[in-house]
Design goal:
4% of the residues lie in helices and 53% in strands. With 494 residues, it is mostly beta strands. The strands form eight sheets. Strands 19, 20, 21, 22, 23, 24, 25 and 29 form an eight-stranded antiparallel β-sheet that branches. Strands 6, 7, 8, 9 and 10 form a five-stranded antiparallel β-sheet that branches. 39% of the residues are buried.
Amino acid sequence: MKKNILITLLLLLSFYTNSQTTFNKLFSFYGNNPYTSITATSIVAKGSDYIISGTLFDTINNNYQTLYFYKLDSIGNIVKITSFTRNGYNYYSNISSLIELKNGGYCFIGEMDTANNNPIHFVIRFDQNMDTLWTKIILYDTIWEALRKVRETSDKGFIFVGEREISLDNLGVLLVKTDSMGNQLWKKIIPFSNLSGVGNVLETSDKGFLIKGYTGSTAQGDGNPFLMKTDSAGNVIWAKIIGGNEYDGGGGMAITMQGDYLFAYGYSTYTYPFNEDWSARLNIIKYAPDGSVIWNRMYDTIRNYLGVCKIQVLPNNDFIVMGNHSLKDSANFFPSFLFKFNANGDSLWRKIYYVADKFGDRNLLADNVLNADGSITACGWVDGDTLVPYEQIWLLKTDSMGYAPGPQNVGIIDLPYLYVGYGELKVYPNPFTEKIYVSNSTNVGNYELTDALGRVVWEGKQIENHNFSDLKLGLYILKVKLKNSIQSLMLIKH
């Protein structure tokens, strides 16, 4: 009897999984015209359908880049909703730049420029039917600014994040808070040494903000993702530079149901100057709200050019990481991946997706939506020299186990691994007021403390003997010079 029940349950599960609609397809608005290119950078749910947004380089009509919005139904059919084009202007959209609002409407942030490359940032507010309610141009003074992401806040307003030029070749993190109509309430500029770009912002359970971005130095031959926590007014509480000594892959972040923070990225495994094609492994770290590490683990084998674009937390606290890497050992093309984990970071399954597998083809998923039945619908683009046109929209829908038409690899090697960004060194307290202490400092040759603009404010050997009470409040980078490497740690002076 028990055996019959088990067989029945397995058959029902198989029927349920197989009955879920899946697709893996390319789309181009102008068919096979070789002189057009189109990408999809954002996807949001609209009932049982979806809205996707992206840009189209239109060589047929005006030779400029157009912003578009399409409706995608649950079986993969796509219909144009609206587009924005203006002669002499190029439109741009970042990944996940279209968001769904709590009232069922939508908000989009984008950029357009002219022939002289002066950027204009704008916000479009849509109702539930994707009809435009209002459009607002985000003006700035004579100093260059860029806004990359918008998120709705708990007060039904918006938080914008991006970069602002502080001085020549120096950028700072830019936070702008507005009301529900896009009217500015406050602006915060946070100096940050060697800032390359800011990628996302999320509101935390305490009404503060979690920010991720990337910092890098061409002169030093390294680059790292960073994670920053601020209060509700944009004041920095803590910030962490994550990764190793070389160029790490980009990262994605998410907030769990319990209010903890997940961060995933490609941890570099090569040594500069490199000869391993930017080899990296998937590294996932779970932080408590105070910035302490709950767990830190490495996954999978070494990949080339590995980067993460999104983490999706599921209602049962499992989470899915989406990104891409190169498959050098096969045809040297770039697929995308989904990795699923439970709340403790144990791996559940891995899937790899692509539609083009010729040399150099890039299959890049950019954004996804979690469906009520546990399936994933994602959008992105594929480009390659043998494709006509060479760049096309990529649409993917999986079932609840991650399966979709086309090739996948199942299984993942899970290796527990602890990495804190600076070896066995422990630097405390952080934030600091007067003193900085370093434990396990036997192999340290020298210390260098710089401010957020990269200016050296102190250098020496016996850091524990120095009093830093005269330093201004703000962010600082402590460079710990070891025998064979230099480790960097971000500190906050309170």
